[in-house]
Specification:
about 350 residues; alpha/beta; Nucleotidyltransferase, domain 5; 2 domains; five-stranded mixed beta sheet; 10 strands; binds 5'-O-[(R)-(carboxyoxy)(hydroxy)phosphoryl]adenosine; binds zinc ion
Length: about 350
């Protein structure tokens, strides 16, 4: 009899309906990500009600397709993991109800995963990252630096006092009308732009601690755009490059402080990780790689395709919890807010 453990992971907290099967040997047996971009594009951002309906239409179908793709049945599974929050509540509810139904009808453990923990642990699937590690978690909804001490145990060193980095990327893309979702488009444009052309501020630089701020930078971009009478394609590229460089500089400054704190607290720890949608950005990854090199830390980031929302991250975090004997009751309620540093296990 096979002793392989397999977890099904379901993600529906924002604008991706996703599911995946992962085993305890860190193998991805199958993964499907259905992005709702076409549904939201004409609104320039995610519309929660449209997202919830789209999750409801797709969730079951994608899970069926996933099981066929991996040639598995529900009987082969060890547990069902789902992003139980934080996120848009309509979508989270769809995932949670689906997961509970499968778990109940097949008598399987139900595991509610914090979406942020999904992002945070993914690097341990792709790389041999050890606890405790320093983490920059930067996505559409969050920008924070944490020490990941254990599964379920996070110490927050700092976070954004206004917008997240991903939000800033998305808003800049919207102002420049270069399409939704913003991050990848800004990065693409920035490649052919001059990062020194526009002098954007680097908020928080030089300040104590590890907090972030992006709203002043966003305003500076808006003002620069308004000053240009006829914005050219090259202007757009230069704005993207200058904006991205300001974001990276702020992250570098904040992470320098975080590394000091981390090293003081855990002198023997070695690992540093970036996760979340913005971790797909190569300028961000390259900056953290060189910071890690300078500070004698090992830098790991999930493969680009596992940085933005996906089912693998939920399945893997579910596996980490399952292997520690953690599971949830069917009373679990979907959580629109669920800060990582308030998790108690
Ligand atoms: O983690 P994620 O898929 O969803 C949330 O949990 O929020 O992150 C999505 C965010 C969006 O704001 C998107 O614009 C940003 O990640 N993003 C990027 C890149 N790819 C995605 N930002 C900068 N550069 C990228 N290549
Ligand atoms: Zn996410």
């Amino acid at each position: 009899m096979s002793t392989e453990k397999i977890i099904l992971g379901i993600e529906s907290s924002c604008d991706e309906t996703a599911c995946a099967l992962v085993n305890d040997k860190k193998e991805i047996l199958a993964s499907i990500v259905w992005s709702q971009y076409d549904e939201h594009r004409r609104f320039g951002g995610v519309v929660p009600e449209i997202a919830a309906r789209a999750h409801l239409e797709k969730c079951d179908l994608l899970i069926n397709e996933l099981m066929k793709k991996a040639n598995k049945t529900f009987k082969d599974l060890s547990g069902i993991a789902v992003a139980g929050g934080p996120g848009l509540i309509g979508g989270v509810l769809v995932g949670v109800m689906t997961a509970k139904t499968i778990a109940l009808s097949h008598n399987l453990p139900f595991i509610a995963v914090n979406h942020l923990e999904g992002h945070s642990l993914t690097a341990r699937l792709s790389h041999p990252v050890q606890f405790p590690y320093l983490l920059l978690l930067t996505s559409g909804g969050h920008c924070q630096v944490l020490i990941v001490e254990e599964v379920g145990k996070y110490k927050k060193l700092g976070g954004t006092i206004d917008d997240s980095a991903g939000e800033a990327f998305d808003k800049v893309a919207k102002m420049l009308q270069i399409g939704y979702p913003g991050g990848p488009n800004v990065e693409k444009q920035a490649k052919d732009g001059d990062a020194k052309k526009f002098k954007f501020p680097v908020p928080m630089k030089g300040r104590e601690g590890c907090d972030f701020s992006f709203s002043g930078l966003k305003t500076a971009v808006r003002v620069a755009i308004e000053k240009l009478e006829n914005i050219t394609d090259q202007d757009k590229k230069d704005i993207c490059a200058s904006f991205q460089s300001a974001v990276v500089k702020q992250m570098e400054d904040r992470l320098t402080h975080a590394i000091e704190i981390f090293k003081k607290e855990y002198p023997n720890a070695k690992d540093m990780v970036v996760a979340g949608g913005v971790a797909a950005n190569l300028a961000v990854r390259n900056m953290i790689q060189s910071l890690a090199d300078k500070n004698d830390l090992i830098f790991s980031a999930p493969p680009i395709g596992l940085c933005t929302d996906n089912g693998v991250m939920i399945a893997w975090a579910g596996m980490e919890r399952f292997l520690k004997g953690k599971q949830d009751s069917f009373d679990f309620k979907a959580r629109p807010r669920w800060p990582l540093d308030t998790m108690d296990n």
